[in-house]
Amino acid sequence: MTLLNEAQVEQLKEITTRLRQVRQEKSIRIEEIASQTMLRVGILQALEEDRFEELPELIFLQGFIRRYGDALGLDGNALSYSLVTNVVCQDSKNARHNSDNKQNTYIPLVLTYILLLVGASAGLLHILNPQLTAESLTPEDNNQQSIVSNQTNK
């Protein structure tokens, strides 16, 4: 899993602690939750024991939390949303610092795509009508051929 910042880890700990407490209060075994949510027992145990390094990316965690919360009778969407809002707030601060780097890579990519499109268009034009491209590239040769043909016709 990608590294979480401190705020994300704290938020995730609060959510998973609440999920574990509700499950234990309702005397539901973790295997029952696993079969109901179709999540592996190992993932649920890692969530409850705060072993976040064993878990997949954050986007998957949001789905796991939603399903786990729904299985316990909680509002899983609200739980996963609380994690999302915390992530968005923290990441927006970091995005300001990284925005300069994104602009520098964006321009060369646009130019590359434009050159690729121009090259592909020229190649397609040549393949579909090679005589047209030959005429447009050598107008002087065509003028000389017409002069020669006019002289031979006389």
TrEMBL record:
<dbReference type="Pfam" id="PF13413">
    <property type="entry name" value="HTH_25"/>
</dbReference>
<keyword id="KW-1133">Transmembrane helix</keyword>
<dbReference type="InterPro" id="IPR010982">
    <property type="entry name" value="Lambda_DNA-bd_dom_sf"/>
</dbReference>
<protein>
    <submittedName>
        <fullName>Helix-turn-helix domain-containing protein</fullName>
    </submittedName>
</protein>
<keyword id="KW-0472">Membrane</keyword>
<keyword id="KW-0812">Transmembrane</keyword>
<feature type="transmembrane region" description="Helical">
    <location>
        <begin position="106"/>
        <end position="128"/>
    </location>
</feature>
<dbReference type="InterPro" id="IPR050400">
    <property type="entry name" value="Bact_Cytoskel_RodZ"/>
</dbReference>
